[in-house]
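*Target chain*
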Amino acid sequence: MNIEALARKNVRELTPYLSARRLGGKGDVWLNANEYPLAPEFQLTSQNLNRYPECQPAQVIERYAAYAGVNKEQVVVCRGADEAIELLIRAFCEPGKDAILYCPPTYGMYGVSAETFGVERRTVPAKQDWQLDLPAIAANLDNVKLIYACSPNNPTGNLLNPDDLRQLLEMAQGKALVAVDEAYIEFCPQASVAGWLKDYPHLVILRTLSKAFALAGLRCGFALANPDVINLLLKVIAPYPLSAPVADIAAQALSSEGIAVMRQRVSELAANRSWLQQVLPECACVEQVFPSESNYLLVRVTAASNAFKSLWDQGIILRDQNKQPSLANCIRITIGTRSECQRVVDALNCLPTA
């Protein structure tokens, strides 16, 4: 029996998103997934594992709303920002009719999620400086229901121009939702557009505890939006999206003490990023280090694929971006501990220059 023939055609033809863990590797310096380099310590405070959890854990919602500066009615919590990406497509896009739009190079799950649901993926490449090409977006909005804009952008690390984001929101008014992915906003909190929700009913903001909160393994994310959007997302979300242990730890991370610890982590990583940004250009193989407002650096190196494999073989696992649009010979380096960053610099300095 040909099981594959039973699958939907678009799934058979789907190229899955290759996450850092799916790519594998055997290393002791893991700088490929934009994770915090050290494990935080939490203790479970509830043992009610015989009961189903709340669909939307009240304490998590209340604490995240207070942290983000929004009302609790403007928050939905889900299994990472990845689930929020999918919830938006499920709630707002008709398969075979509607489209999403995004601007590569950017996060790959926007396109994969759309393709999984049989929704058209429409791409408008970013400009040379990785800002939005607004005229090209305007020319491609027919049947678009969702626009994804990542700021700071992954993998380039740059912030999108706020004036451009406002123009994008004005352009999409009455036509589409604009989802601004702020997975890395803790590294530049002044750039958040959460305060814009009162002005734009079609704005959605994606957040996560995976990066600055050091909880990538927890799989806890959020969508911030106005209540009309939130209520629609709650119609299509799973009955119990967060397990009780996840909600327990998320609430602890969002306590005043947890937020203070997160901000200390951000300060430490920013210092390591600044140091790495200064020393990388001294490596003979490094052609360019791009500015970043996140917990990673995008670096253009000579013969990037060879450099990536050489460090991989030494147990230093980075992320090869060479095949992304406009990112030829680029590698993304997550900011780790100072010693891990030093390992990267040492290994790059040992690469042949010819």
Summary: The chain has a mean pLDDT of 94. The longest strand covers residues 144-150. The radius of gyration is 20 Å.
